[in-house]
């Protein structure tokens, strides 16, 4: 009799909750990715710098632009290549300007702060649009730059050709010159329109990790680039004969302004590569306290043109252009067919996105098969749904308690009268 009562109680509980359905097994863990190869680093002095800005979240597709091997925070070089020189830069890349082959890199798609090498994006955007012979007047707003930052010495109210202003930008890294050129190229929107055009050009070139906030490269919140993106931008610049002429100019004269009773003066190219590296094609230096030293340089040797880009370097033990020269030497020593990736062509990523077929609409998910209230409740309990577990546990406790009380009553001896 006791067994029948206990069986009835258990059956009642099982009917209420149903037979639990085992939870699905967790997917197998992925194998840990191989640790990135560390980049050779030269010892650098400790410096005081503002806190590093927080970069935007990584976009996996952006990190593989140019090839999957470039998706690394560490070193990537061709198989069998000698070790590259140790430099202080946090990221760098060496590429062939003509073939687009990437010869080697350190963290090519890691976000970095550009400083004045961002002026190359301004050149890539505006140089094809602006007439170098056009006379323009500098406004007081053009001179709104960070006090103490690099400037050519353009005067408010002064009249200069666009070509002169380009020389002031590329030789002396003039931040006021950047404002003038962005304003001219920005149309009715002025400098803001120029910066918007720079960002549109970066996207067109495939420089998806580049976002300009200032035309000059002076630090701005949310302003980033990468060593790979800088190579894309530099490749476009060095394809322009006007840019090639400007960036190799050693010195030029800023004309006098008779209406302002100011004389002219001479400026010199700050890029030491053009004076000290055989075959130098030019480039651009950059520095802010936040970005530290950035550099882009190019050179030719034996009919081969290479470009080097680097970010986050220190000027000791050697300066940024010297680190670039060392990496150029390393690149020229590699075989002509050496490659770990490539520089995408302008517009290539946009064309690929347009050509990609639209994803088919997802098929509607069929409803789960009907299993009855008992089985459904059992599945919810197996999934840890406390909204079902607590009521069922209460019912089970009442049933089991009732059976126990009944059994206890049957055990008590009956009084005989």
TrEMBL record:
Keyword presence, Secreted: no
Signal peptide: 1-25
Keyword Cytoplasm: no
Biological processes, Gene Ontology terms: cell wall organization; peptidoglycan biosynthetic process; proteolysis; regulation of cell shape
Domain of life: Bacteria
Short name of one Pfam family: Peptidase_S11
Domain Peptidase S11 D-alanyl-D-alanine carboxypeptidase A N-terminal: start-end pairs: 82-314
Keywords annotated in UniProt: Carboxypeptidase, Cell shape, Cell wall biogenesis/degradation, Hydrolase, Membrane, Peptidoglycan synthesis, Protease, Signal, Transmembrane, Transmembrane helix
InterPro entries tied to this protein: Beta-lactam/transpept-like, Peptidase_S11, Peptidase_S11_N
Binding-site residues, substrate: 284
Ranges for region Disordered: 42-82, 351-377
Active site location: 116, 119, 173
Family, similarity comment: Belongs to the peptidase S11 family.
PANTHER family according to UniProt: D-ALANYL-D-ALANINE CARBOXYPEPTIDASE (PTHR21581), D-ALANYL-D-ALANINE CARBOXYPEPTIDASE DACB (PTHR21581:SF33)
Name the UniProt record assigns to this protein: D-alanyl-D-alanine carboxypeptidase
Native species: Micromonospora sp. CCTCC AA 2012012
